[in-house]
Amino acid sequence: MADERSSRTAQLDPPILAAVDGSTSSYAAVAWAAVDATLHHRKLHLLTSMAIETRLGPGPMLSEADVEWLRREAERIVAEATRVARTAAPGGDLTITTEITSGLVIPTLIERSAEVRMLVVGSRGIGAFQRGLLGSVSTAVTRHAHCPVAVIHDISAVDPVSASRPVLVGVDGTDNSVPAIELAFEEASRRKVGLVALHAWSDTSGLDLPITGWETAQQSEQALLAEGLAGWSERYPDVEVRRIVVTDRPVHSLLEESDNAQLLIVGSHGRGGFNSMLLGSTSNALLHAAEVPMIVVRAH
């Protein structure tokens, strides 16, 4: 009976799950997740895997000593992750739970993503050593997770200067961006900062656009952005919104504006995508290039 009550509570108040593997970006992810969990009054669950990833064939045969070493290493990682979380969110209000799994990390995270509010991962793990290279875990979960996925690079942007910057959301005028807009308003409200809503209405640069009818097209796109934000400002009157409409490629314009933001939020796929698409070209490109923390939100 106790297990049933615990399960129902978790469904009503799902935690934020952060994956950690001992890499710099995974500890940055933990710091960001701790702050976000505190803002949303949610539990933070830290998970690490002691399984050894293999590309092909069965895994290596491990002795009892090997298994014991892996467990001690996993315990060290979650202990350090807990310390990082407490440092990022001091005050004792944050409830932290930890877990060491023997299952492979990617399928475990994808399965758990159906039961948590948000999944937080580092942009690259200990096996991804090149700067700007997106790790296998972050790539897989952003494509297949059931919940919003936050991808954090080496900088978690939880310092006072970064925390004063606005939240940036990409709006494409389709239903696919509605969950991203909703989450962006909520995050901005919780963080007590403004929101920048950016709509890039061309897949080419401004120099390639025809001159005839340009002003009419721009007014139409401005109206489209206003329509996409309609109702949300009334729901979140504390959030000051700045609207930006540009005739530029979405990736370029969002990257440029993200230099002045603490968080970038986008839908999993945009106006060129369709419901069964795993990840759109814009969100995929931003995951590889953006330096600020980024959340990818899948349509409901």
Q: In CATH's first tier, which class of the largest domain applies? A: Alpha Beta
What is the number of strand segments? 10
From the spread of the alpha carbons, the general shape counts as elongated
* Class by SSE composition: alpha/beta
Kindly describe this structure:
With 300 residues, the protein is of the alpha/beta class. It has 2 domains: 2-152, 3-Layer(aba) Sandwich (Rossmann fold), CATH 3.40.50.620; 160-297, Rossmann fold (3-Layer(aba) Sandwich). It is built from 11 helices and 10 strands. It has helices spanning 2-12, 24-39, 64-88, 105-112, 136-144, 160-163, 178-191, 214-229, 232-235, 250-258, 281-289, and strands at residues 16-19, 44-49, 96-101, 118-122, 149-152, 167-170, 195-200, 241-246, 263-267, 294-297. The protein has a 10-stranded mixed β-sheet, with helices on both faces. The chain is elongated and about 70 Å long.
